[in-house]
Write a structure and sequence with these properties.
eight-stranded antiparallel beta sheet, single chain, 26% strand, 7 helices, elongated
């Protein structure tokens, strides 16, 4: 063999061994990482070993009997929230998020499963309702723990004053619902806060209103960055579904100016103005993306209907919404 070829072969052999060593090191690192328990990133549907140690750190609240901390409490602010709920942080941040406290607990009766408690401080009850309503699951079952509370097969959600609370179990099981409810009741009993009712949900007409569909959009409603604090509700009109909305502004003048600005926003992005509904003074009617929108004001309220496939249906619901707002104003 030519001496130069021998040199090349030795060089290739050494290079191959170096590459294999690097790959093996990376593989060992991945293998080791997979077996490290990190409470912040452990998937919610996974199980913790029965041999997992109970945390000696004090719990976030006085726990019901038979429940003990499994991990130390965690705390996250606006800068670190995405470390805990990557992909959903923006929803909370846009709604006035202050702080998240969370902790995992295990049950003496079911040592192979656990519950995780999330307490989102949203500064006030309106902000808390915004994230509660935006997060509402399709399989929700309303509860009477608080005015805003529901459960799903593996979780419980509610609003208590400025707090939005989630209690999530490691698996879906009817046996885990009683401990989740006990934990929720413990938090409610130990958290003395001022609770204020939210007026806007009662302003939507009841006829045709889809149950539990009222949602608060905290910011950038309908893609318009000036439109915030907008309550929406779904309505059924025959086989069609429409969306009504209400936003209370500081003054009637602000409501009127914002209505004009939103109307111009729709026109800018391809909407076409239609003859306004004469039964609602000052209303704007727009067709856009094969649907219809009606926008109007009543005192400090900016309101309307959107995503309607039929103009008559949009105008009918807008008229009923307008009548409801007038009755509220006349009664005040």
């Amino acid at each position: 063999m030519h001496p130069q070829n021998k040199k090349n072969t030795r060089r290739q052999t050494c290079l191959s061994l170096m590459i294999l060593t690097i790959i093996a090191t990376i593989g060992l690192g991945i293998f080791w990482t997979q077996f490290q328990y990190n409470p912040a990133i452990l998937p919610l549907n996974s199980h913790i070993s029965n041999a997992a140690q109970t945390s000696t750190a004090p719990p976030l609240l006085d726990l019901p009997a038979g429940m003990v901390p499994l991990a130390p409490p965690e705390m996250f602010d606006s800068a670190s929230l995405s470390d805990k709920i990557n992909g959903k942080a923006e929803l909370y941040l846009s709604a006035g998020f202050v702080r998240l406290r969370s902790q995992r607990f295990k049950l003496a009766s079911s040592p192979g499963v656990w519950l995780e408690f999330f307490e989102y401080d949203m500064a006030d009850g309106t902000n808390a309702f915004a994230v509660f309503s935006a997060q509402r699951r399709q399989d929700a079952q309303t509860l009477d723990l608080t005015p805003y509370a529901y459960r799903t097969p593996n979780a419980l959600f509610f609003v208590r004053g400025p707090y939005y609370v989630e209690i999530i179990a490691s698996e879906a099981s009817e046996e885990l619902f009683p401990p989740m409810q006990l934990l929720a009741e413990a938090f409610i009993g130990q958290t003395q806060v001022e609770t204020k009712s939210i007026a806007e949900p009662a302003l939507f007409p009841k006829e045709g209103l889809a149950a539990d569909s009222i949602t608060l959009i905290a910011a950038d409603a309908f893609g318009f960055d000036r439109l915030d604090h907008v309550y929406t509700a779904l309505y059924s009109e025959g086989d069609a579904e429409l969306l009504a909305f209400i936003s209370r502004r500081k003054t009637p003048q602000e409501a009127e100016e914002l209505a004009r600005a939103y109307h111009e926003f729709l026109i800018t992005y391809g909407g076409q103005s239609l003859d306004a509904d004469a039964s609602i003074p000052g209303a704007h009617t727009v067709t856009i993306l094969e649907s219809y929108e009606v926008i109007f004001c009543d005192g400090p309220y900016l309101a309307g209907v959107r995503e309607a496939e039929d103009l008559a249906q949009a105008q009918n619901l807008a008229q009923r919404l307008h009548k409801e707002l007038q009755e509220v104003r006349d009664a005040s």
